[in-house]
Amino acid sequence: MYLDSNIWLAQRFVCRKVLSNKMNDKPKLLIVADTYYPKLDGTLIFVEEFIKRTKDDFQLSQLVPDLGLHKGKNVTYLDTYKKIQLSGYPSIKFSFSNRKKIRNAVKNSDIVFVQGPGLASYWAIYYGKKYAKKTYFYLHTITWELFAKFLPPLFNKMFFNFIKNFSVKSYNRCTEVLVPYHGLKDQLTHSGVHTKISVARLGVDIDRFQPTKNKQKSKIKLGLDPNKTVIGYVGRISKEKNVQTLREAFLKLSAKENIFLLMVGDGTDEQKKKFEEITNCKITGFVRGVQGYLKAMDIFVMPSLTETTSLATLEAMASGLPVISTKVGFIKNYIVKGHNGIFFPRNSATMLSIKIEKLIHNQDMIKKLSVNARKTVAYSFSWERSINKIKRLLLND
């Protein structure tokens, strides 16, 4: 009996040792992002999907801003200025404490995977280069286009050039830059990025995002009038997303009493206040189950001035929604006019209102766009394919 007990203990020890060795064999991957809960945006959705699909391949840790909600394992939180915000996001403190956290996190990793485009990302790239770590930057947004929206016109050009030059120098410090579509690779190369650039598309969970079987029931579930046409938007309510054009277009619509504007997302108080003044409008703030809100929409609008892929637009298309969008980023490639979506000129609230009106009164077109939008995403965008490619790049370089 005593011998059996010793054998059992020895076997248990060996199993634990084997598991420990296997864990230690996995590379330590640090994910750096300038966003975190409760700001559930496209970048954070990507990080969630990435962690879910790579947790058995890496020893994962995260470096993120402290936005008030602590969640997950092996997460280092950076202090933020609560009163200094950019597009509704508190800024990371430029402090010795934060620099020390970033430096230590990078030193203790084998691979640094940066999501950008803020202070934590640029610091992580700097230390990645300093300590000879394999450093990868996945470009979710064009940094200089984003930040240039937040200064008066007089300073825009100077600030645009500064941020662009600074960003390009940072990208060139990386082992590799990953982009979601080929056109962006060409744009970066033309801008002076000479480090290796690889294309890895974003994806959509087409089982989670799919057309509703009962549109009226989906509206009632959210407390919306089932008899009203719901015009929807998902994303930050901010300047770079050009939501003011959507607001102006909505106010130009005739029979507004039969139309409802559903804004799924959060933003600055200044931007939100303008929408709160509209009678038939609801702002949800950041929500977890965005698919339920998409099912309640009849038409989806993406008025943004700066996008790469626009995960929100792909999710809307996967949900079988007719999309009206600006020609921006990768959107202009995967949306085919009159086939799976419609375009409108940037900043033209009048043309957007006309496009919405025409679509509301053309159910055949709505059906055509909806069916083809769903097919486009189902056939061409997959989280599994995207993240498997990124995983191979991180492991093999």
Q: Can you offer a commentary on this structure?
A:
This protein is of the alpha/beta class and 397 residues long. The protein has two domains: 21-203 and 383-396, Glycogen Phosphorylase B (Rossmann fold, 3-Layer(aba) Sandwich), CATH 3.40.50; 215-380, 3-Layer(aba) Sandwich (Rossmann fold), CATH 3.40.50.2000. The chain is built from 16 helices and 15 strands. It has helices at 2-25, 42-54, 96-107, 119-130, 143-147, 153-171, 182-191, 215-221, 243-252, 269-276, 290-295, 311-318, 331-334, 349-360, 363-380, 383-396; strands spanning 28-32, 59-65, 75-78, 80-86, 89-92, 111-114, 134-138, 176-179, 196-199, 229-234, 259-264, 281-283, 299-302, 323-325, 342-343. A seven-stranded parallel sheet has the order 3-2-1-6-7-8-9. Strands 12-11-10-13-14-15 form a six-stranded parallel sheet, sandwiched between helices. α9 (243-252) links the parallel β10 (229-234) and β11. α2 crosses α16 and α9 packs across α14 (349-360). The chain is globular, with a radius of gyration of 23 Å.
